[in-house]
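Q: Could you fold this chain for me?
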Amino acid sequence: MTVEIRRTLSHVETTFRDGGLETGTPMKLIAATAVITNPWAGRGFVEDLRPEVKEVAPVLGRTLVDMVLEAAGGGEAVEGYGKFACAGTGGELEHAAAIIHYVPFGNIYREAVGAKTYLAFNNFRAGPGAPIMIPLMDKHDGGRRSHYQSVHLNIPDAPAPDEMIVALGASVGGRPHSRSGDRYQDLAEMGGDVDNPAGV
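A: Sure. Below is the predicted structure, expressed as structure tokens.
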């Protein structure tokens, strides 16, 4: 089985001003998206999804990672990262989850950007024009709140019922003028475990 990609889309938004002030170094949000045929479309309830996942996910991961790196200017530039999948209405939530939660899919991204944290994620089921919302977190530090943000976009004609949207998100920089502290400060004030800022 090969990945049937109908369309890819690279989305880059650059913020120069926020809160009435210039950002200094512009902050970039990036999304690399692919609209693919759902590999389980029209097959009814498939008991074991792994054979297709093993074939599709690594190829798709490599394609999307290359798109992110091109838009960001390399893996070193990426500071925040995340992943997303949306199955069309003819598919299942499990179809979306299966692709992006397969370890090799995420590891391709982690290795390309030198990440240490887990990939923030969003997966659901919806129709054409559904919001693509990719949550991001710092690639090195799960407690660094300045990089908690998300990339938002949509594709008007996707996903069709037999399709999926799979995407990776990235940020170059954190939120403009971040000044709400971080999880370490909160946990210290609460008497919590500052060595476990993610709470896991």
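A (continued): The two ends are 37 Å apart (CA to CA).
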